[in-house]
Design a protein that fits this description.
The chain is α+β, with helices and mostly antiparallel strands and about 190 residues long. Strands 1-4-2-3 form a 4-stranded antiparallel sheet, with helices on one face. Strands 5-6 form a two-stranded antiparallel sheet. Helix 4 crosses helix 5 and helix 5 packs antiparallel against helix 7. The longest helix has 16 residues. The protein is globular.
């Protein structure tokens, strides 16, 4: 069980994401992280520990932007280390971050494909990092120079459908934040 929050606002979201994570702290007390963005630049802070211990004022000042995601972790897959704190980031394509709650039942198989066929390097044993790289690989296949709102708003979501087809287990469209839910998870919190 983990806690995830995503926000898009007209002003800075760092403090609101922090506040939301403190409310969600009961869903994960192992690690916490926040990623924000402004003008295409991503800012991230994550580490092991409670929300109040991971973020000090100096960290909050660096989390600029009116869009962001936050995550509190309860480890069910991967290791119990700072490297497994989320959100996870991958540079290509576009620069993507992901916060994930759930388990990929076919993580080992997906990892083998990502390394062998997509030439991706995974830094952790976390299935969440695997999911992020599956999404990145599918976006790479789409081949647009930048992610723009039409990819999401005109029904051109084939990369999302492709990623969802290959991932087993749990996982708005608009430019910025994208949410998934395992269709078999209805009724679970």
């Amino acid at each position: 069980m983990c806690g995830i929050v995503g926000m898009v606002g007209l002003s800075a979201v760092n403090q609101r994401i922090y506040d939301a994570l403190t409310v969600l702290q009961h869903r994960g007390q192992d690690a916490a992280g926040i990623m924000t963005a402004v003008d295409g630049e991503l800012f991230m802070r994550k580490d092991k520990g409670l929300v109040r211990d991971v973020f000090q004022q100096k960290h909050m000042l660096k989390l600029k932007g009116n869009i962001g995601i936050g995550h509190v972790r309860y480890p069910t897959a991967g290791a119990d280390s700072a490297n497994d704190a989320q959100p996870f980031y991958v540079n290509s394509p576009y620069g993507l971050c992901l916060g994930h709650n759930g388990n990929l039942t076919n993580s080992r198989e997906l990892t083998e494909v990502l390394v062998r066929e997509d030439r991706r390097h995974l830094n952790t044993g976390s299935d969440s990092e695997v999911l992020l790289n599956v999404l990145a690989s599918e976006l790479q296949r789409v081949g647009t120079p930048r992610v723009t709102p039409p990819i999401f708003s005109r029904g051109q979501t084939r990369f999302i459908a492709a990623a969802a087809r290959v991932c087993g287990g749990g996982d708005g469209h608009r430019h910025g934040i994208l949410g998934f839910r395992d269709p078999t998870a209805s009724g679970r919190s």
